[in-house]
Specification:
With 177 residues, this protein is mainly β. It has a single domain, classed as Calycin beta-barrel core domain (Lipocalin). It has two helices and ten strands; from the N terminus they run ααββββββββββ. It has a ten-stranded antiparallel barrel with strand order 1-2-3-4-5-6-7-8-9-10. The longest helix is centred in the N-terminal third of the chain and has 15 residues.
Length: 177
Amino acid sequence: MRLLFSAALFVFISTATPSSAQSVCADHPKGGALDFWVGAWRVTSPDGSVPYGSNVIEKALGGCAIFEHWTNARGGEGKSLFSFNARSGDWEQLWVTTDTARPGGLKHKKLIETFADGGVRFQGTYEGNKDNMIVDRTTLTPTEDGTVRQLIEISLDGGETWRTTFDAIYAPAAEAG
C-alpha cells in the first residue's frame, strides 16, 4: 500500500509540476506584460541631464518572476520582486529598501492597468507619517526609441489628486555611454 501511494504521489508531482522547458507564465496572454523592461538600464532625468542611477531588470522562472535591482546615483539600493499568477492573470510587485521603517521603504503594488502602447500601471498603498495612507502608483511606458519612461506618483487624498515623486527615462546601459 505504501509503495502504491508513493508511486501515485510521484506520478502526480511529475505531471502537475511543469518542466523547465514549459512556461505557463510566458505562454499566458498577460505573462509578458513587463518584457519591454527586461535589461540593464541607465536611468536619468527626462531630458537626460541628471543621472539618477542604474537598474537591472531580469526575468526568472519562465517569466513567472521579474527581479529589479535598483542602485541610485548615491549608491542606495532597492529591490523588487514582480510575480505573475498565471491562474488569475495578475501581476504584483513587492519593493524593498534597506530602510523598511521609512514611508515608501517597503511597498506592495498590483497591476491595475495596461495601455495600448504596451505600458503598465501598478498601484498600492503604504502608511505615511502620522498614520496617513499614501496611494502610490508607478507607470512604465515603452517608447519607440527603445527607452522606457517610469513615472511614480503619490496621492495623499485617496487618489483625488496626484504629485510626481519620480520621473525618469531608462536607456539601455550598453547604448547610454
